[in-house]
Write a structure and sequence with these properties.
- With 94 residues, the chain is of the alpha+beta class.
- The protein has one domain: Alpha-Beta Plaits (2-Layer Sandwich).
- The protein is 27% helix and 32% strand.
- The protein has three helices and four strands.
- A four-stranded antiparallel sheet has the order 2-3-1-4.
- The protein is globular and about 45 Å long.
- The termini are far apart.
- InterPro entries: Dimeric_a/b-barrel, Tscrpt_reg_AsnC/Lrp_C.
- It holds the Pfam family AsnC_trans_reg.
- This is AsnC family transcriptional regulator.
């Protein structure tokens, strides 16, 4: 069964990034959490069996973590490996 993947952009209240990141990593379905520079504080990579699973992980989990003030979700359609990208560039598909 194909997984449903998403990237979640997360804003966190000042001074709560570490605590929020740790809490988010403990949510089932969260694969990775990164602290980042830029317009958001954290980025989480999540995976679920279906869209209902994402509902449990994102609004039902990440958005309820203490300190999280906003989430924005990017649905993933296709994952590209380094080999696939190199082959596309060699074919002139850039």
């Amino acid at each position: 069964m194909a997984m449903t993947n998403a990237i979640v952009l997360i804003d966190v209240a000042s001074g709560m990034v570490n605590e929020a990141a740790q809490a988010i990593t403990e949510i089932a379905g969260v694969r990775e959490v990164y602290s980042v520079a830029g317009d958001v504080d954290l980025v989480a990579v999540v995976a679920a069996d279906d869209h209902d699973g994402l509902t449990q992980i994102i609004p039902g989990g990440i958005a309820k973590v203490a300190g999280v003030t906003r989430t924005r979700t990017l649905m993933a359609f296709k994952a590209y490996s380094g080999k696939e990208l190199n082959a596309a560039y060699e074919l002139g598909l850039d």
